[in-house]
Design a protein that fits this description.
Bound molecules: zinc ion
Strand order of the largest sheet: 1-2-3-4-5-6-7
CATH class: Alpha Beta
Number of domains: 1
Largest sheet: 7 strands, mixed
Oligomer: single chain
Strand content: 25-35%
Distance between the termini: 33 Å
CATH topology: Metallo-beta-lactamase, Chain A
Order of helices and strands: EEHEEHEHHEHHEEEEEEEHEEH
């Protein structure tokens, strides 16, 4: 689904309870078309290959992108907001199909190392199967210059995970926040690497940005895209009032 010129959203179904039951868990994915030399696309959070409800998430993403004229073979860069399998899971499969490079936050790569070692049992007991991923690029806070006129700002937003990144497109006023906030709620902080205090601080930082499209990592029973400055401001206020006290 086209959002604005060159920006596309692929929302995993789950606004109604029936959809949530039927489709299971997967992250929303976002594409920036023709962002790279050779008209290659950037894909943010590719989601899983197959999820616990046996939905073919990657097949669905590929066919939805096709409807917009975007071929998976033309993905040149995958940016993962964080190292949870429902977000990065399909990275290596898409690399096979396209030769895309895979990027993740620098600190999040440390989590990946722990996740395959000492933390693996704890994650497994929480139901996390960690698919393999071998990032090529480790992103730190700062400017990410893609095409000639295309600049993204990588912002560190720890809390849901330690090395979580958000991607802000200042010209388009778009923020891709992964699992920082949703419509009416926030990312959980009980997974290893999570921190309620860090999450609150990250949310306050992002609340100061000029955002017209807040793109979240999941629908979880509410819209995955929060549109309009006022609506976004209201959402931060609701979160402060009704979620912060319980984090
Ligand atoms: Zn997550």
């Amino acid at each position: 689904m086209k959002l604005v010129d060159n920006f596309y959203a692929y929302l995993w179904p789950g606004v109604t309870t029936q959809e949530m039951m039927r489709y299971g868990n997967n992250s929303n994915s976002y594409a920036v078309a023709n962002a790279l030399p050779g008209n290659k696309h950037v894909l943010v959070d590719p989601g899983q290959v197959v999820n616990e409800a046996r939905q073919n998430c990657l097949d669905r993403l590929i066919s939805e992108m096709k409807k917009d004229g975007l071929k998976i073979e033309d993905v040149g860069l995958i940016i993962n907001t964080h190292a949870h399998p429902d977000h990065y899971g399909a990275s290596e499969e898409i690399r096979k199909l396209s030769g895309a490079k895979v990027a993740i936050g620098k600190e999040e790569n440390e989590f990946l190392k722990l996740a395959s070692g000492e933390m693996s049992q704890a994650l497994k007991s929480m139901g996390f199967e960690m698919p393999e991923v071998h990032p090529d690029l480790y992103l730190s806070e700062g400017e990410l210059r893609l095409g000639k006129d295309l600049v993204a700002q990588i912002i560190l937003i720890p809390g849901h995970s330690d090395g979580h990144i958000g991607i802000y497109w200042p010209k388009e006023k778009i923020f891709m926040g992964g699992d920082l906030v949703f419509d009416g709620s926030t990312g959980r902080v009980d997974i290893p690497g999570g921190s309620a205090e860090a999450l609150k601080a990250s949310i306050e930082r992002i609340a100061k940005l000029d955002i017209e499209y807040l793109l979240t990592g999941h629908q979880y029973g509410s819209p995955g895209i929060i549109k309009g400055k006022e609506q976004i401001k209201r959402n931060f206020e609701i979160i402060r009032r009704s979620i912060f006290p319980y984090l």
